[in-house]
Design brief:
By secondary structure, the chain is an alpha/beta fold. The protein has 30 helices and 27 strands. The strands form six sheets. Strands 5-11-12-10-9-6-8-7 form an eight-stranded mixed beta sheet. Helix 27 links the parallel strand 22 and strand 23. The radius of gyration is 34 Å and the shape is globular. One of its GO terms (biological process) is glycolytic process. Keywords: Glycolysis, Oxidoreductase, Thiamine pyrophosphate. Its cofactor is thiamine diphosphate. One of its GO terms (molecular function) is oxoglutarate dehydrogenase (succinyl-transferring) activity.
Length: 953
């Protein structure tokens, strides 16, 4: 008998029903046996389909083309033979059932039992009701195709069975969001994992007891601290104890699937619990911190719920290294730091899957802080991807104590931001710890399978206030009346296990007593900590610990070697066609290497990079324009002008220096400052032998990353003992480009300087940047380096230097007078400056023939080189005036920082004055004419100032 499907010219299954056909065809492509015999026979007979847009469609083409041909065929044959009414009715109902299944996959999450407080009624979703599709209870025992589901191995199910399976899978303790994912394979994988188990875990007795043990430890620690250290802040995990169940699953299941390192970033809530019960920090050490003891050797230190920790724990899959990142109170700012650290570890191992970044969020911060979005946007990029991050949300449903949940966000869920990268989200009721473990394992497997971010949103509550000194009922009376009546997740699960016969009636209480005894003794409770384990991939920071500050380093490179390196970085393949401007630049650089031209900034930088990678150091430079350079001075990445595709035609000379060289990576970053700089900080804290550089497009743009600068770069060593050799390149210079393109805010960095915490420099020529970059790696010292790089000086002929200054010199913290016509005993005024303004002053002096004026350049602003500066200033014993000159307004730039250092080194009777722009609320003027007027005035002031003398020594 001929079936309706075989009547392909008039089938009701095409046209408006293409989506159903597509589902059947996808199932057929995966497994021909998964569809009904009628569909299988139909698809088997598709030797050729009608052409689509002039192209013939065959069976082995992608399903999209096939479905398009289905639709085209249906349109062409709409008026042909009528289908039997009985078949039409059955098919129509089947389509309605398919729509019901799709609705549960998309909307079932909104009907799931997710709130342990049960404060609101479950939302009525019409699309989840039979009546929405014209189905009734009379249809429940009718049989329908189940070939596009994973509930059963059979090809059919009754509607009642399908409906029950849908509700169990999508509307119980786990609410899943994944239908927004565009990759069909990922969606099918999640559907299979959820539907084949009905989202219901099947744990052994031992696994269930372990889950209860994790809950007991989580609750036990909080209650112990609450009674022993009354009123002290600890940001309790009570109400969210299932988080420890989740992290236990991350560690132990991670070990089973090949994870060797886990880098965790989290804010305050539950952090102490994580340290003790997952990472194996000794309780006695934590108690000592509560009692006022602190780490030795830190100039400042930090509160205990900001501190990081690392350990190696034993799992059934082998040792796993755990690292909890240090975190300030800026919550989500730790996200990119963790990603950068994870990326460095992955590159060290050449294995993405072996290193897992885990980010733990609060619900309000996840939805509210912009760095979350910036970091998510890095996830699938080539330069910043980490093979997927597992996100765990401790969802208190309140944010901070006084917030009204209605004002917490503009999205339905706090996790909606992750849909921008199509990450699946598994919302789970925190009062169902088995579901939490199941969802976490599913997330871990998804990350391992697809290398993509995934979210576990543990919907729980917060038993106490934002901190232990808070009284949440003042602003949340209704919520906390409900919370006060809640028996606790541990008790609920313990009662369940007793009822199941997994434990005896006294079993849960015995676990509580055992944990309390461990706390009284200050003993470990976590997985076995491997105290003697040493991974072959661990980095030894010993050479850098306790290193004394020194400005000295042997950074010179023999001339012949410089010439060889110059030849390598200016040679390109004969088949490569560079842009004409690049071709000239390479020719000029070759001439510089031969000593035929003075060396400019770009060549000095390139020779520094080439010499470092040749010595085995790696270099990673990122920023929005670093391949070419914002001011087209770098050209580290060359582009073939005859290339046909995006993924070819690129040549990087610095990757072709020698056979055994270090790596050179230049990454044009996404349009982000905060997340990218945080990423590079995390990378540099993990890789001391890589010159890690972040370059701002304009130095002003670092304003968007100020939290990273303040809380990590400037103070990370003082607070946490974290050494870091990150280098910042911040283009700075007043060239009339307006208030957002002039100042890198030198004053802000100098205000952060103390305890030799970082280096702040403003080099003025190519030799200086050459020696400075080499010094950053050659010295056994890892301190952040902030370089205020030039703009106009990149091409200023006066800033050129002979190549001999690279083969004989070193970085000079102070550059004294270089004009041999200036006689020291004739000098009446000494101008002291930093940066571009030096060349303006030198030109003005020449125009004025002012040979009684000497100029001293401060190249290193911090640490201030007192000895070098004093030696230069002492040469001018007859000078009565010392003038600090700067481009920046008086209330900005180095003036307020540096005047004290200048005074300290002046001679008796000398007077100190200031020359520069007047104080301003804006970094620079926006009108070019006014800029030029100001520039002319400050130069004039430098040479003629008599008023405004500040101090007489």
């Amino acid at each position: 008998m001929t079936t309706a499907i075989e009547k392909s010219n008039n089938s009701y299954l095409f046209g408006s029903n293409v989506s159903y056909v597509e589902e059947q065809y996808e199932a057929y492509l995966d497994n021909p046996e998964s569809v009904t015999p009628e569909w299988r026979a139909y698809f088997d007979n598709l030797s050729h389909l009608p052409a689509v847009d002039g192209k013939e469609t065959t069976r082995d083409q992608n399903h999209t083309s096939v479905i398009a041909s289905f639709a085209q065929r249906a349109r062409a044959n709409t008026l042909l033979t009528q289908v039997q009414p009985a078949n039409l009715e059955v098919a129509g109902k089947q389509l309605k059932v398919q729509s019901l299944i799709a609705a549960y996959r998309s909307l079932g999450v909104r009907y799931a039992h997710l709130d342990p407080l049960k404060r609101s009624e479950r939302e009525d979703i019409p699309e989840l009701n039979l009546s929405f599709y014209g189905l009734t209870d009379a249809d429940l025992d009718e049989v329908y195709s189940a070939t596009n589901t994973y509930f059963t191995t059979k090809s059919t199910m009754t509607l009642r069975e399908i409906l029950n399976a849908l509700r169990d899978t999508y509307c119980r303790s786990i609410g899943s969001e994944f239908m927004h994912i565009s990759d069909p394979a990922q969606k099918r994988w999640i559907q299979e994992r959820l539907e084949s188990t009905l989202s219901t875990p099947s744990f052994s007795k031992e696994e269930k007891v372990n889950i209860l043990k994790q809950l007991t430890e989580a609750e036990g620690l909080e209650r112990y601290l609450h009674t022993k250290y009354v009123g002290q802040k600890r940001f309790s995990l009570e109400g969210g104890e299932s988080f420890i169940v989740s992290m236990d699953e991350v560690v132990n299941h991670g070990g089973k699937i090949g994870v060797k390192e886990i880098v965790v970033g989290m804010a305050h809530r539950g952090r102490l619990n994580m340290l003790i019960n997952i990472m194996g920090k000794r309780p006695a050490d934590l108690f000592a911190e509560f009692e006022g003891k602190h780490a030795e050797g830190l100039t400042d230190g930090d509160v205990k719920y900001h501190n990081g920790f690392s350990s190696d724990v034993a799992t059934s899959g082998g040792p796993v290294h755990l690292s909890l990142a240090f975190n300030p109170s800026h919550l989500e700012i730790v996200n990119p730091v963790v990603e950068g650290s994870a990326r460095a570890r992955q590159e060290r191992r050449s294995d993405t899957k072996a290193v897992l970044p885990v980010l733990v969020h609060g619900d309000a911060a996840f939805a509210g802080q912009g760095v979350v979005m910036e970091t998510l946007n890095l996830a699938q990029t080539r330069g910043y991807g980490t093979g997927g991050t597992v996100h765990v949300v401790i969802n208190n449903q309140i944010g901070f104590t006084t917030s009204d949940p209605r004002d917490a966000r503009s999205t339905l869920y706090c996790t909606d931001v992750v849909k921008m990268i199509e990450a699946p989200v598994f919302h789970v009721n925190g009062d169902d710890p088995e579901a939490v473990a199941f969802a976490t394992r599913l997330a871990m497997d998804y990350r391992a399978e697809f290398g993509h971010d995934v979210v576990v949103d543990i919907v729980c509550f917060r038993k106490l206030g934002h901190n232990e000194q808070d009284t949440p009922a003042l602003t949340q009376p209704l919520m906390y009346k409900t919370i006060d009546k809640h028996p606790g997740t541990r008790r609920l699960y313990a009662d369940k296990l007793v009822a199941q016969g997994v434990l005896g009636t006294d079993g849960p209480d015995n676990l509580v007593k055992e944990y309390r005894a461990l706390m009284d003794k200050g003993q470990d409770s976590a997985e076995p900590v491997l105290t003697d384990y040493k991974s072959e991939f661990a980095v030894d920071w010993t050479p850098f610990i306790g290193a004394k500050w020194s400005d000295k380093a042997d950074t010179a490179v023999p001339l012949k070697e410089l010439q060889r390196l110059g030849e390598r970085i200016t040679t390109i393949p004969t088949t490569f066609t560079p842009h004409k401007l690049v071709e000239k630049l390479l020719a000029d650089r070759a001439a510089m290497a031969r000593g035929e031209m003075n060396l400019d900034w770009g060549m000095g930088e390139h020779l520094a990079f080439a010499s470092l990678v040749n010595a085995g150091y790696d270099i990673r430079i990122t920023g929005e324009d670093v391949g070419r350079g914002t001011f087209t001075h770098r050209h580290a990445v060359l582009h073939d002008q005859k290339r046909e595709r995006w993924d070819d035609g690129v040549y990087v000379p610095l990757q072709h220096i020698s056979d055994d060289q270090g790596s050179f990576t230049a990454i044009d970053s996404v349009l982000s400052e905060e997340a990218v700089l945080g990423f590079e900080y995390g990378y540099a804290c993990t890789e001391p032998y890589t010159l890690t550089i972040w370059e701002a497009q304009f130095g002003d743009f670092a304003n968007g990353a100020q939290v990273v600068i303040d809380q990590f770069i400037a103070s990370g060593e003082a607070k946490w003992g974290r050494q870091c050799g990150l280098t910042l390149m911040l283009p700075h210079g007043y060239e009339g480009q307006g208030p957002e393109h002039s100042s890198a805010r030198i004053e802000r960095y100098l205000q952060l300087c103390a305890d030799n915490n970082m280096q702040v420099v403003q080099p003025t020529n190519g030799a200086q940047i050459f020696h400075l970059l080499r010094r950053q790696m050659i010295r056994k010292l890892r301190k952040p380096l902030v370089i205020f790089t030039p703009k106009s000086l990149l091409r200023n002929k006066d800033a050129g230097v002979p190549i001999s200054e690279l083969s004989e010199g070193t970085f000079r913290t102070v550059i004294g007078e270089v004009d041999h016509n200036i006689k020291a005993d004739k000098v009446k005024r000494v101008l002291v400056c930093s940066g571009k303004v030096y060349y303006d002053l030198a030109r003005a002096r020449q125009e004025r023939d002012a040979q009684d004026v000497a100029i001293i350049r401060i190249e290193q602003l911090y640490p201030f080189a007192h000895k070098a500066f004093a030696e230069e200033l002492a040469k001018y014993k007859n000078a009565k005036e010392v003038v600090w000159v700067q481009d920046e307004p008086q209330n900005q730039g180095p003036w307020f920082y540096i005047q004290h250092h200048i005074l300290e080194n002046m001679q008796e009777g000398q007077k100190l004055a200031f020359a520069g722009r007047a104080a301003s609320s804006s970094p620079a003027v926006g009108y070019l004419a006014k800029h030029q007027e100001q520039q002319k005035a400050l130069i004039e002031q430098a040479f003629t100032v008599r008023k405004g003398i500040l101090v007489t020594k």
